[in-house]
Amino acid sequence: xxxxxxxxxxxxxxxxxxxxxxxxxxxxxxxxxxxxxxxxxxxxxxxxxxxxxxxxxxxxxxxxxxxxxxxxxxxxxxxxxxxxxxxxxxxxxxxxxxxxxxxxxxxxxxxxxxxxxxxxxxxxxxxxxxxxxxxxxxxxxxxxxxxxxxxxxxxxxxxxxxxxxxxxxxxxxxxxxxxxxxxxxxxxxxxxxxxxxxxxxxxxxxxxx
Length: 209
Known about the structure:
Shape: elongated
Distance between the termini: 43 Å
Radius of gyration: 19 Å
Low-confidence stretches: none
Number of strands: 0
Order of helices and strands: HHHHHHHHHH
Number of helices: 10
């Protein structure tokens, strides 16, 4: 049930990402202030469902739910709980979910720390970030679903986390690395938004730094 909640949350995050990408764009094109002002709400909704999806996958690891293929491949009953936490990003599917979660965390930062920006400019930044999220979530759902179930190997202790990754540094290294990598999506979105508006304000570059 936890895995299904995680998958459903991921689908709802995709829905909110689609709303963030499309409706404010229509609002900007046809001068509909209501659609433009709704962009932060969609961004917050997307973040909440991505966070719920990530929490669900973490609970699957902590509960040793080996009916989930990803948990079976990257955890075991004997694995300490703190390594189970980092086993969430120990494989491709979980690391992509972490990537999307951090991308949405940065998007949330634009919502709350970008209030000093021109409203139309901030909306364009959020739209670009929304499209990025839609792409990554579609990739997760279509090719790298971390909640995929199997019911053949239930009487198992799990295949364990790669021994090379069972190090305290693995608890901190990928999240910190991804914060930097994914953080470059902000100047990218700002650059695209500036090109979209056809001008570049010094205050925008200062805010981006």
